[in-house]
Amino acid sequence: MDSPIKKLLIVDDSKVSRMLIRSHILARRPEWIISEAACGEEAIALIDNDLPDYCTMDINMPGISGTDAAERMLSKYPSIKIVIFSANIQETHQERARLLGTILVAKPVTEKSITLALNCFSDSK
Amino acid sequence: MSSLSELHLDALAEVFSIGAGRAALSLSEIVGDEVRISVPSVQIINSEDINSATLSLNNGRFGAVNQHFRGPFNAEAVLLFTEDQALKIVGDMMGSQMSIDELAEFEHEAMCELGNIILNACLSAMADIFSFTLESSLPDYAVASADEILHRLKENSTQPYIMVLHIDLTIEKRHTAGNLVFLLSSASLDNLVSHLDQFLGNIT
């Protein structure tokens, strides 16, 4: 049986967004271990040392875009399940998320949007 | 003046980036292409300290869409674009091969619509996230010089605080930068800060 303890990496340049995602996730999955990165490059460097099971990824961040970062992460570690969590909800980005085999969940971070992300993670088991 | 921490400004930037995302979705549906719109920074300053550098105003003429919002806090919002760039964007929005001269005929209406989309997307994101209601007036549009704009912002004694958001907007291959300026009274700024505190306090 799968361990209930999962590792989640939150990638978002906004500290407030990271705090919100962390708080909502821990309310639902208190046993999860959460790490954070403030940009795509930081996330890519971080996963070499500490591979997460799941990742939430913002799109508009300083440096490379979240979708580019997700693509690079998945090409190296295809086991990570990434959800794109962004305010940029145009069709182009939704299509890009689909091509990466994931979904785009629209911000704001709420119980509803977190449920969508968690459902996407659990479907991937 | 209510002091805003780095976390307050981060929360405001996040609220407005959600607004910008909504505006970009609406605009991309109008033009049938990707729209890149970003809100990289939020600043709150005393209106006496505002200058052309704060608003990246050069010597050109600017299109200003103006709208009043009322609710738990009141604000006058002004969206500023350089006039020639704004007209090109209006051309993209109208999806025709009209010349700039022809477009000028529709400038007032189309700029009001552009402003309405961006301003309401930003303000509705704020209202949703902070759980309150903001009513908006109809948008108005005027063309003014940098000096006229600065004079008007500085002279407004009942709204001594100014919240400035710098916005980059790219439709197809056209790029323009604009500023979204909110004029706030002391009481409105205090109310905004207390809503921010409440919002941040709910993140445990």
TrEMBL record, chain A:
<dbReference type="InterPro" id="IPR050595">
    <property type="entry name" value="Bact_response_regulator"/>
</dbReference>
<dbReference type="InterPro" id="IPR001789">
    <property type="entry name" value="Sig_transdc_resp-reg_receiver"/>
</dbReference>
<keyword id="KW-0902">Two-component regulatory system</keyword>
<protein>
    <submittedName>
        <fullName>Response regulator receiver domain-containing protein</fullName>
    </submittedName>
</protein>
<dbReference type="InterPro" id="IPR011006">
    <property type="entry name" value="CheY-like_superfamily"/>
</dbReference>
<keyword id="KW-0597">Phosphoprotein</keyword>
<feature type="modified residue" description="4-aspartylphosphate">
    <location>
        <position position="58"/>
    </location>
</feature>
<dbReference type="Pfam" id="PF00072">
    <property type="entry name" value="Response_reg"/>
</dbReference>
<dbReference type="GO" id="GO:0000160">
    <property type="term" value="P:phosphorelay signal transduction system"/>
</dbReference>
<feature type="domain" description="Response regulatory">
    <location>
        <begin position="7"/>
        <end position="122"/>
    </location>
</feature>
UniProtKB/TrEMBL annotation, chain B:
<dbReference type="GO" id="GO:0006935">
    <property type="term" value="P:chemotaxis"/>
</dbReference>
<dbReference type="InterPro" id="IPR051469">
    <property type="entry name" value="FliN/MopA/SpaO"/>
</dbReference>
<keyword id="KW-0145">Chemotaxis</keyword>
<protein>
    <submittedName>
        <fullName>CheC inhibitor of MCP methylation</fullName>
    </submittedName>
</protein>
<dbReference type="InterPro" id="IPR028976">
    <property type="entry name" value="CheC-like_sf"/>
</dbReference>
